[in-house]
Structures are given as C-alpha cells and as structure tokens.
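Dear Dr. L.,

I hope this message finds you well. Following up on our conversation about the binding site, I have prepared a predicted three-dimensional model of the protein together with FE2/S2 (inorganic) cluster. For your records, I am including the exact sequence and ligand specification that went into the calculation, followed by the structure tokens. Please feel free to forward this to your student if that is useful.
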Amino acid sequence: MRALLTRVEQDSRLDRVGDRLQRAVLGTLRPRRLRDLLHGVTLGHPLHPAMVQVPVGSWISAAVLDLMPGQRRAATMLVGLGTVSALPAAVTGLNDWAALSRDQRRVGLVHAAANGVGLTLYAGSLAARLAGRHGVGRTLGMLGLSAASLGAYIGGHLAYKQGAQVNQSISELHRMSDGWHSLVDMTALPQRTLMTREVDDVSVILYRHGDEVTVMLERCPHQSGPLGEGEVQEIDGHACVVCPWHGSAFRLNGGEVVQGPSGNDQQILPTRVQNGVLQTRLP
Ligand code: FES
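The resulting structure of the complex is given below.
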C-alpha cells in the first residue's frame, strides 16, 4: 500500500483532473474569508480533521448497532447523521486540498475519491433503511465503512507522510538549543522592518515597533515559505507578515494566523534585552 501511494504521489496523469478540480474549488469557494473559515483560520488549527469526527464516529457507531438486535432505528439515525455531516467535512477537505502542493494533491484526489465512494454507499444505505430494506442498508453501510476507512488511511498518508496541513515550522524548535541566544544590538534594529537572523541554523524574523520586538520562526507553517521575504501589511488593525508564496498572514504581535491557506498559527519566541542586545530562547 505504501509503495502504491508513493507511485500516486509521482503520477502526473492525475494532474489534468486535479488542476481542473482545483480551479473549480477556488472559483466556487469565495470570498477569501470563506476559504479562511474553512481552513480553520479562526481556530488557529485546521478545521477538516475536526469536521470528519462526526461522520466517522456516526458511521462506526451505526456499524456497531447493526450487529445488535432491535437497534435499526438508532442505526438509521446515525447513518443519516454521518451522511449529512460528511458534506461540510468534504467541503473543508476540498478547500484544504486546493492549497496543497502538486504531489499532495495527487494523493488527496485518491483520498477524496475513496471518501466519495464511501459517502455514496452510505447515501444508498440510508435510502435502503428508510425504505425498510435494512439488510441491504447494512450491507451498503459495511461497504461504505470499508471505503471510508481506506480514505482515512490515505488521509493519514497525506498528513503524516506528506505533511499536508501540518505545521511545517514547529519542528524547527527541536533544532534550537536551550538558553538565551543573542540576535542583534538594539541600535541596529530598524523600526517596522523585517530582519532575518539565525539561531543554531534556525531562521527567525525580527520586527520592531517602538520598544516592542517580535521574534518569530521564519518558515511558514503552511509549506515552509520564507516569511522573511514577505511583506508587512496591516490586516484588521494589526501589523502582519504575509507569506510570499501563498499569502498566509500572521500577526506580528502574537503569531495568530489571520489569513489562510495556513490553518496554523506561527510560533513566537520569548525575547529580552541584555546590555542593549536583543536575545531570544525556546518558548
Ligand atoms: S508557504 Fe504557503 S502560505 Fe506560506
């Protein structure tokens, strides 16, 4: 299975349909604030993994009830809940998928196809149950659960092997040693201008506004874009750094993501000034 998914990652034949679907998703999910909401920007965490809990939990619970006598009505209700709640979960997934890299989108396409088959089977299962054909409904439900489980496995590959929508910057902290690290003399730190420095080979950005100084990891949580090459913009009354790759924006006075496609906040590092020198350390 792993070898198969690795081949999917490299299969450019999937790009024709993938590119078309990406254009359709980006053209449909407007304005940008809607896409940000679906990415989980307001939460500071990706929304899709939370949304899939309802359909998956409902469908698994229905499968358990299907094995017990006298639980047809409860199982039908859970199949219905799972099927209806799968639709918004799919929309959040498509929105995330459209902002992935090409190799991730190929695997994401197969993930979506498996889940689409699962959802279709569950819709059939619900229809059969409502028509009183509970045996057919149970069979379609089991098939649907198998397809959704395959989709979940592929989704795991996408997240944990390929790093889709996972915070790409936070592992940088593991390369920083303990203790305070000197960055720059405060007299050499300009106002309202991004500056990049290294701490144990970890790139950080510095931003000074008056006496307030922010030190933030430079790698964008979305796909490792160089925030140090980004612009500073005022968004919703806050100075934010905007990633030059896909436009995610992070507040410079806290690291909160205010604009996607990143669904994750950016890590801020503690600071102090010692003998006129700005220092930082691990949080
Ligand atoms: S790398 Fe995609 S928004 Fe920064």
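In brief: The helical segments are 2-10, 15-28, 32-39, 48-51, 53-66, 72-97, 102-130, 134-161.

With kind regards,
A. P.
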